[in-house]
Amino acid sequence: MVFGVYTGPQPPPKQMHEMNQEEQAEEGARKMIEFMQSCPGKTAMAGVSGFFLGGFFGLFMASMAYDAPSGTNAASHISQLPFKQQMKIQFTDMGKRSYSSAKNFGYIGAIYSGVECAIESLRAKHDIYNGVSAGCVTGAGLSIKAGPQAALFGCAGFAAFSTAIDLYMSSESAAPPANDYDE
């Protein structure tokens, strides 16, 4: 059946060893696309993307904090160390900060994407309310350990941020970016 229309008897699907190389590539691509469009696929992609984005962001922020490594009280002592030792301490600190930021961004991305996909699947609609709801659940979930008031503010903050991003990304009134051919 194709789109609810009976098309007659269908041949059984070919096994991988019966397919030529092109058919195997098409089948592999089809399965990859199906995975990427599923909730677990979207969650995994958001988590991995968030991890790498957070890593770069953490590396950048750590490189700006050149005063003293985090977790040390050796602000006055680090300048007395040899240069090689100072560099080792700074790079170790940058790695720790970058990894910490990467974990946080990956975690937030995976949670938000998974919740949004689940809500969209339950509602069977694709609209702005999925993102707002996912933002609220994510914000509340991340701040619940600090108490109900923090969870409420986390919900409101993430929902507002998600709404702003969704509205910006879907705005049709914004002019497209200029390119070299517009001149």
Automatic annotation (TrEMBL):
<dbReference type="GO" id="GO:0008320">
    <property type="term" value="F:protein transmembrane transporter activity"/>
</dbReference>
<keyword id="KW-0472">Membrane</keyword>
<feature type="region of interest" description="Disordered">
    <location>
        <begin position="1"/>
        <end position="25"/>
    </location>
</feature>
<dbReference type="Pfam" id="PF02466">
    <property type="entry name" value="Tim17"/>
</dbReference>
<dbReference type="GO" id="GO:0005198">
    <property type="term" value="F:structural molecule activity"/>
</dbReference>
<keyword id="KW-0496">Mitochondrion</keyword>
<keyword id="KW-0813">Transport</keyword>
<dbReference type="GO" id="GO:0045039">
    <property type="term" value="P:protein insertion into mitochondrial inner membrane"/>
</dbReference>
<comment type="function">
    <text>Essential core component of the TIM22 complex, a complex that mediates the import and insertion of multi-pass transmembrane proteins into the mitochondrial inner membrane. In the TIM22 complex, it constitutes the voltage-activated and signal-gated channel. Forms a twin-pore translocase that uses the membrane potential as external driving force in 2 voltage-dependent steps.</text>
</comment>
<keyword id="KW-0999">Mitochondrion inner membrane</keyword>
<dbReference type="InterPro" id="IPR039175">
    <property type="entry name" value="TIM22"/>
</dbReference>
<keyword id="KW-1133">Transmembrane helix</keyword>
<dbReference type="GO" id="GO:0042721">
    <property type="term" value="C:TIM22 mitochondrial import inner membrane insertion complex"/>
</dbReference>
<protein>
    <recommendedName>
        <fullName>Mitochondrial import inner membrane translocase subunit TIM22</fullName>
    </recommendedName>
</protein>
<comment type="similarity">
    <text>Belongs to the Tim17/Tim22/Tim23 family.</text>
</comment>
<comment type="subunit">
    <text>Component of the TIM22 complex.</text>
</comment>
<dbReference type="GO" id="GO:0030943">
    <property type="term" value="F:mitochondrion targeting sequence binding"/>
</dbReference>
<keyword id="KW-0811">Translocation</keyword>
<keyword id="KW-0812">Transmembrane</keyword>
<keyword id="KW-0653">Protein transport</keyword>
<feature type="transmembrane region" description="Helical">
    <location>
        <begin position="44"/>
        <end position="66"/>
    </location>
</feature>
